[in-house]
């Protein structure tokens, strides 16, 4: 303002000089002449101020300026009560603070019990480097709740003022509009909790953060369109503060565009990270950030440890975490200007996936392979019966030669010869091919000697009859074909010559008799060989 006034005075000076002929010299006394220090007197009659009224002193060098500027001493006399109502403003003081060229204005009047100046709610009184000359008893200023009073370098006796409680001067400050994704229900957690503005108390203003309280009682639950929410300021004790302007918040719900995520990757456990790969991030976006939800996507929190890595092939957005708690992750972007807003958001992804079935592919490491490693350990006991499959080929001929098996064994009553005793008759056809080979060799002669001893325990074979349970242990004696000579001892027991056996075997009686005679002959020959008599007698 001082520059403006200076420019105005300069313009006047140049205009005055322009009126003189250019060939005449300018009088020397005019530039050096200083304006006289005039005194100005203003009288204010009783009135109600609903508009802006100002009285300001400036340096005397700006003589000639018009109201509300006074280049000299200024005295304002109040002849009656002045009321400043809502929307009204009265400003009295110097143009600048601390200037020695500007005279301090003086206010003169007679004090009144109800106040010489009354500042109502919404009204404003500003005094800067002002002096006073009052008479009488009473009050000079009465501040009603909501009225604004600002005193700068103006000493004033507290007995002359009736102060109102502290007031928030938010005439030029309101919370920024809140933008929410369409479908988001408004909750208290989404609303701002403080506002930085002026707190006015007994004529002094302080720039500070003031707590906010919002009224959600009238919220109808909408999640689209716009909404104006009202609130209140609170002091440090939670009491409501008066404000020069009602506290309001404008809420907008927007429909964002889509950010396409091509892959979601979980890495690590204690030092974990979730990585979302995208086709492309919005080129128009002025800000890109990541959000995390712990409640299934109902509420979202901006994640600080979020980084973007771009390559020629893909763009990866990484969230870095300190644990493997399952969370939902998504990517957000925005472009905000004074006249236009645009938002983008991706689908949300739960990482790591619950259940632990995401060990393969792009879901990071997992310990699930340990489980199948234990299951195949069950066949380890099969390593001991590995030799068992060797005698198993013996029962293979069971379906081909089941009938001759019951001859030497009367055990068909127990139906056991099918699994175990059937291999005994098998050597009958086998020795015809294998036994002739050892006969010409003298080596088998010592072998029958131990065989004679072995048949002694063999009569105990009826004992295993009550022990058919260990089917797996019985095959162990099976690989011993040595008891072949024992068979004649069992064969002479043709007691099972009942018709039931014949019918079961499917052999005719003559055939059975012939087989029995052949078996008896074999026993005789074997006995002679064992006694070393006849043709088998050794020569000395």
Topology summary:
Layout: H1 2-19, H2 29-32, E1 39-44, E2 47-49, E3 52-57, E4 69-70, E5 73-78, E6 82-84, E7 89-94, E8 106-110, E9 117-119, E10 124-128, E11 131-135, E12 141-143, E13 148-152, E14 161-162, E15 167-169, E16 178-181, E17 194-201, E18 204-214, E19 226-234, E20 240-243, E21 247-254, E22 257-259, E23 261-267, E24 272-278, E25 287-293, E26 301-302, E27 306-310, E28 315-321, E29 327-336, E30 341-346, E31 349-351, H3 370-374, H4 417-421, H5 429-434, H6 448-453, H7 486-490, H8 499-505, H9 509-531
Parallel strand pairs: 1-5, 2-6, 3-4, 3-7, 5-8, 6-9, 7-10, 8-11, 9-12, 10-13, 12-14, 15-20, 16-21, 22-30
Antiparallel strand pairs: 15-17, 17-18, 18-19, 19-20, 19-21, 23-24, 24-28, 25-26, 25-29, 27-28, 29-30, 29-31
Rg, rounded, reads: 58 Å
Uncertain parts: 1-36, 357-382, 397-462, 470-475, 485-493
Terminal Cα span? 155 Å
Strand content: 25-35%
Amount of helix: 10-25%
Number of helices: 9
Largest sheet: 6 strands, mixed
- Apparent shape: rod-shaped
The SS-based structural class is alpha/beta
Number of strands: 31
Subunit organisation of the chains: single chain
């Amino acid at each position: 303002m001082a520059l403006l006034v200076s420019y105005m005075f300069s313009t006047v000076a140049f205009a005055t000089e322009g009126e003189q002929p250019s060939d005449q010299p300018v009088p020397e006394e005019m530039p050096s002449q200083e304006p006289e220090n005039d005194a100005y007197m203003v009288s204010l009659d009783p009135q109600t101020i609903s508009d802006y009224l100002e009285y300001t002193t400036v340096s005397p060098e700006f003589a000639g300026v018009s109201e509300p500027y006074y280049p000299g001493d200024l005295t304002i006399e109040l002849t009656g009560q002045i009321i400043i109502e809502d929307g009204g403003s009265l400003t009295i003081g110097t143009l600048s603070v601390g200037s020695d060229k500007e005279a301090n204005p003086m206010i003169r009047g007679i004090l009144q019990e109800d106040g010489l100046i009354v500042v109502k709610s919404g009204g404003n009184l500003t005094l800067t480097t002002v002096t006073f000359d009052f008479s009488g008893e009473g009050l000079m200023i009465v501040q009603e709740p909501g009225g604004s009073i600002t005193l700068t370098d103006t000493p004033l006796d507290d007995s002359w003022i009736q102060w109102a409680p502290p007031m928030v001067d938010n005439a030029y400050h309101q919370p920024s509009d809140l933008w929410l994704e369409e479908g988001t229900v408004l909750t208290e957690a989404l609303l701002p909790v403080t506002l930085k503005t002026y707190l006015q108390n007994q004529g002094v203003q302080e720039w500070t953060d003031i707590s906010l309280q919002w009224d959600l009682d009238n919220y109808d639950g909408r999640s689209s369109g716009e909404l104006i929410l009202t609130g209140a300021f609170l002091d440090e004790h939670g009491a409501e503060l008066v404000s020069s302007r009602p506290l309001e918040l404008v809420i907008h719900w927007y429909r964002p565009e889509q950010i396409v995520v091509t892959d979601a990757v979980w890495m690590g456990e204690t030092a974990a990270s979730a990585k979302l790969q995208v086709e492309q991030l919005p080129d128009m976006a002025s800000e890109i950030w990541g959000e995390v939800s712990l409640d299934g996507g109902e509420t979202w929190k901006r994640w600080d440890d979020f980084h973007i890595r771009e390559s020629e092939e893909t763009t990866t957005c990484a969230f870095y975490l300190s644990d493997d708690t399952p969370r939902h992750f998504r990517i957000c972007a925005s472009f905000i200007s004074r006249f236009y807003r645009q938002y983008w958001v991706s689908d949300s992804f739960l990482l790591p996936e619950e259940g632990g079935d995401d060990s393969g592919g792009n879901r990071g490491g997992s310990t699930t392979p340990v489980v199948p490693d234990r299951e195949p350990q069950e066949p380890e006991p099969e390593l001991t019966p590995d030799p068992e499959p060797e005698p198993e080929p013996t029962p293979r001929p069971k379906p081909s030669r089941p009938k001759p098996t019951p001859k030497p064994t009367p055990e068909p009553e127990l139906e056991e010869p099918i699994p175990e005793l059937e291999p005994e008759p098998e050597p009958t056809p086998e020795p015809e091919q294998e036994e002739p080979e050892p006969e010409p060799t003298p080596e088998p002669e010592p072998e029958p000697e131990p065989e004679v001893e072995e048949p002694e325990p063999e009569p105990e074979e009826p004992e295993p009859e009550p022990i058919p349970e260990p089917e797996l242990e019985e095959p162990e004696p099976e690989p011993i074909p040595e008891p072949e000579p024992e068979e004649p001892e069992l064969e002479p027991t043709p007691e099972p010559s009942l018709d039931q056996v014949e019918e079961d075997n499917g052999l005719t009686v003559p055939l059975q008799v012939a087989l029995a005679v052949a078996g008896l002959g074999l026993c005789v020959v074997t006995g002679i060989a064992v006694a070393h008599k006849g043709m088998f007698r050794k020569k000395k």
